[in-house]
Amino acid sequence: MISSLEALLFAVGSEGLTKEELLNILEIEETELNSLIDSLKTKYESEESGIELKVLGNSYKLVTKEKEKNYLKKLALETSNNLSESALETLAIIAYNEPITRMQIDDIRGINSTQMLRNLIAKGLIETAGKAEDTPGKPNLYKTTDFFLDYFNLSGINELPELDLDEIEVLEDDDLYKSKYKEEGE
Fold first, then answer.
1. Which of 123, 144, 156, 185 could link 80 by a cystine bridge, Cβ 3.0 to 4.6 Å?
2. Cβ of 95: how many Cβ atoms within 10 Å?
3. pLDDT for 6-62, tens place per residue?
4. Same domain for 46 and 79?
5. Phi–psi pair at 77, nearest 5 degrees
């Protein structure tokens, strides 16, 4: 059962799971969950592991140990040279709308952005900017970082190019379907 707990926490990543969610998913009593949590914490403390189990906010999360942060920074710098179109799209949405929640980003992109946000956080281009207190569940707000400004050679977010919304072509759902699933030879 400890492996199930570990797998669940790994799968949800930085979102974490609350005690209530874990109890419902694992279908166990609170005393058994507490025992599993203690066992998993002990496992990470006693092994030469780069991760640990923490309670952050109201959620249990697997996080990188503090001693590994320098390696993660190096990794972020190594991999930040090339940004995919999806990464650039997500960055633009955040930069022009910050602070913004993941759900708002998902609504604009039309796709789940959880992994993209993790990647951009790991690269140091975005960070959490508190909680959306007026939104149910109080989700994280995201904003760009000083590293983002350095990366794009900006002195401030106000130096972003103006968006001319009249020049942006908005495709209808029908147009998206036709363009994406066009038959070969058309």
1. 123
2. 19
3. 999 998 887 889 999 999 999 999 999 999 999 999 999 876 888 889 887 788 988
4. no
5. -70, -40
Burial 100-123 (b: 16+ CB within 10 A, else e): bbbebbbebeeeebeebbebbbbb
The DSSP code sequence of 147-186 is HHHHHTT-SSGGGSPPP-GGG-----HHHHHHHHTPPTT-
Per the listing, tokens 């249990």 go with 60
Tens digit of each residue's pLDDT (9 = 90 or more) over 139-154: 999 999 988 888 887 8
The closest alpha carbon to 36, from 17, 20, 22, belongs to: 22
Distances in whole angstroms, Cα of residue 156 to Cα of each of 42, 94, 145 = 45, 14, 10
pLDDT of the residue at 165: 62
In the numeric block, which tokens belong to residue 46? 């006693």
Distance CA 88, CA 18 (A): 32
Kind of pairing, strands 126-131 and 59-64?
unpaired
Q: Are strands 126-131 and 140-144 parallel, antiparallel or unpaired?
A: antiparallel
Q: Which domain holds residue 40?
A: 2-64
- Please state the pTM of the whole predicted model: 0.49
Residues 63-77: pLDDT tens digits?
Answer: 888 888 788 777 766
